[in-house]
C-alpha cells in the first residue's frame, strides 16, 4: 500500500520569541494597535496578514481598522 504524503505541513520547529513580531513602529502608515494574525512561508519568504487599528491610543478613540500585508526574509524582521 502506498503512503500518501500531505501537501501541507507545519514547520518542524516553531520557536516563540520574546518580543512582538510586528509593532506599530514597523508600519509605514498610521497605526496604533497591531494584531499579528497569521504567518505563512511561501517561496522562501514569510508573509503575514495582520490587523491594524488606528486612532488615538491614549484617549482610546478608534478611527478605523484595516488589514495589512508584511513580508520578511526570516519571519522575525519585517
Give a verbal description of the structure.
The protein is 0% helix and 44% strand. The protein has 78 residues and is an all-beta fold. It has a 3-stranded antiparallel sheet with strand order 1-2-3, with no helix packed on it. A hairpin with a 2-residue loop joins strand 1 and strand 2 (45-56). It is elongated, with a radius of gyration of 16 Å.
Helix coverage percent = under 10%
The protein's oligomeric status is single chain
Order of helices and strands: EEE
Strand order of the largest sheet: 1-2-3
Summed up, the helix count is 0
Average pLDDT over all residues = 85
How much of the sequence lies in strands comes to 35-45%
Globally, the shape reads elongated
Largest sheet: 3 strands, antiparallel
Strand count: 3
Derived structural class: mainly beta
Low-confidence stretches: none
Radius of gyration: 16 Å
Termini separation: 45 Å
Features of the shown structure:
78 residues, mainly beta, three-stranded antiparallel sheet, elongated
Produce the secondary structure layout.
Blueprint: E1 33-42, E2 45-56, E3 61-72
Antiparallel strand pairs: 1-2, 2-3
Short description:
This protein is an all-beta fold and 78 residues long. 0% of the residues lie in helices and 44% in strands.
